[in-house]
From TrEMBL:
<feature type="domain" description="Serine aminopeptidase S33">
    <location>
        <begin position="49"/>
        <end position="162"/>
    </location>
</feature>
<keyword id="KW-0732">Signal</keyword>
<dbReference type="InterPro" id="IPR022742">
    <property type="entry name" value="Hydrolase_4"/>
</dbReference>
<dbReference type="GO" id="GO:0052689">
    <property type="term" value="F:carboxylic ester hydrolase activity"/>
</dbReference>
<feature type="signal peptide">
    <location>
        <begin position="1"/>
        <end position="19"/>
    </location>
</feature>
<dbReference type="Pfam" id="PF12146">
    <property type="entry name" value="Hydrolase_4"/>
</dbReference>
<dbReference type="InterPro" id="IPR029058">
    <property type="entry name" value="AB_hydrolase_fold"/>
</dbReference>
<protein>
    <submittedName>
        <fullName>Alpha/beta fold hydrolase</fullName>
    </submittedName>
</protein>
<keyword id="KW-0378">Hydrolase</keyword>
<dbReference type="InterPro" id="IPR053145">
    <property type="entry name" value="AB_hydrolase_Est10"/>
</dbReference>
């Protein structure tokens, strides 16, 4: 018996869903976090991996690197969520209140949210700069069962040494008694709590608990977070993959596509 066209279309619509871009707000540590979820074509009941993409200090979810990684993952059938940390981009909260510990809280809340999505089969994480520090500590806290794979891109573990020296992004202060805030660019104020928590932040100590698949990508021309900080992650994560990009800077501006491809390819390999 031949089915009516409208019924055929209805059946197809229930079996297949289009690739979808969804903008939403997720509760974070200091208010709601602005996020974008990109989901590939999925049949009804089909699942796929999800990657959390985390931006760096004063960055945003819509930075070229973050968007490029999301696009490459989507083409391989992997969903992603990009989000602005508290006090950044379109998220709530004040930049002056932002710290690495409360960014980790943000990431844990986002992880909890995507873990509850019915189509998510596993979760990977990638982070750039300070987002790489957050990604490393998130992986250490949650473990390989909850974070299947992690990619660090120019991880800025130097932020702890900067706080100990009292020199963050060229702004000088007394590390033992930092001011209420220091003036950054674009009128942003970096708060005292950031400096105090960064001073004793257990970055490598926390990250070392992670035993899952890991990759580090770092440029030798990085003057913000020298590549030796990336090498240390490679040392503590036995069996991790390490890509040292000659003369590449902190933002991978010489070949952004290469850096994004390395990140996406590693996640695709270990999540599919």
């Amino acid at each position: 018996m031949r089915l009516p066209l409208t019924l055929c279309l209805l059946i197809l619509a229930t079996l297949f869903s289009r690739a979808e871009t969804q903008r939403l707000m997720i509760p974070g540590s200091h208010g709601n976090l602005s996020a974008v979820i990109e989901t590939p074509d999925l049949r009804q009941g089909q699942k796929c991996p999800m990657v959390m993409i985390m931006h760096g200090f004063m960055g945003s979810k819509d930075s070229p690197l973050e968007k490029m990684i999301a696009e490459k993952l989507l083409s391989a059938g992997i969903a992603s969520i990009r989000f602005d940390f508290n006090g950044h981009g379109e998220s709530e909260g004040e930049f002056i209140d932002m710290t690495v510990p409360n960014e980790i809280e943000d990431a844990i809340k986002v992880h909890s949210y995507v873990s509850g999505l019915p189509y998510v089969s596993s979760i990977g994480v990638t982070g750039h700069s300070q987002g790489g520090v957050v990604a490393s500590m998130l992986a250490g806290k949650l473990g390989k069962k909850k974070v299947r794979s992690v990619v660090l891109m120019a991880p800025a573990a130097v932020l702890r040494d900067d706080a100990i020296r009292g020199n963050t992004m060229g702004k000088i202060y007394d590390p033992l008694n930092p001011p209420e805030y220091i003036e950054m660019w674009n009128g942003k104020k970096l708060g005292r709590d950031y400096m105090l928590t960064a001073f004793s932040l257990p970055i490598y100590e926390t990250a070392s608990a992670y035993t899952g698949h890991a990759c580090i990508i770092h440029g030798t021309g990085d003057r913000v977070a020298p590549y030796t900080y990336g090498l240390r992650f490679h040392d503590i994560w036995k069996g991790s993959e390490y890509h040292q990009l000659e003369a590449e800077d902190h933002g991978f501006s010489k070949d952004l596509d290469r850096a994004a491809t390395l990140s996406a390819d590693f996640l695709i390999t270990h999540l599919k």
